[in-house]
Amino acid sequence: MATSEKAIRAYEEVIEFIAAGTSPSSVIAFQPSAAVKKRVADLIYREKTSGLSPDEKAELDHYMQLEHLMRLAKARARQYIANE
Fold it and tell me: What pLDDT digit, counting tens, does each position of 27-78 carry?
């Protein structure tokens, strides 16, 4: 599987989650799949040890953008729950 296809899989997980309908509680509980977690951990490890190819660096950057987006969504979801 090409690097960009792996990053697309992570985006697809988030898209499916959103499309299925969400609640503040489900946003807070959302976790990426084990495969995505493993891939990100591998990329981070290799970035720190042996370095990444430009494609792998771009893939890791995409994962980090998704992580940031989900952290913001989870923070907002916590605000909604607190204001209920």
Answer: 999 999 999 999 999 999 999 999 999 999 999 999 999 999 999 999 999 9
Q: What angle do CA 7, 26, 17 make, to 5 degrees?
A: 35
Residue 9: the pLDDT is 82
CA dist 55 and 22 (Å) reads 32
Distance of CA 17 to the CA centre of its chain: 12
Q: How far is CA 33 from CA 36, 40, 50, in A?
A: 5, 11, 25
DSSP-assigned states of every residue in 18-65: HHT---HHHHHH----HHHHHHHHHHHHHHHHT---HHHHHHHHHHHH
Chain centroid, CA 58 distance in Å: 14
Residue 64 in tokens: 């980090």
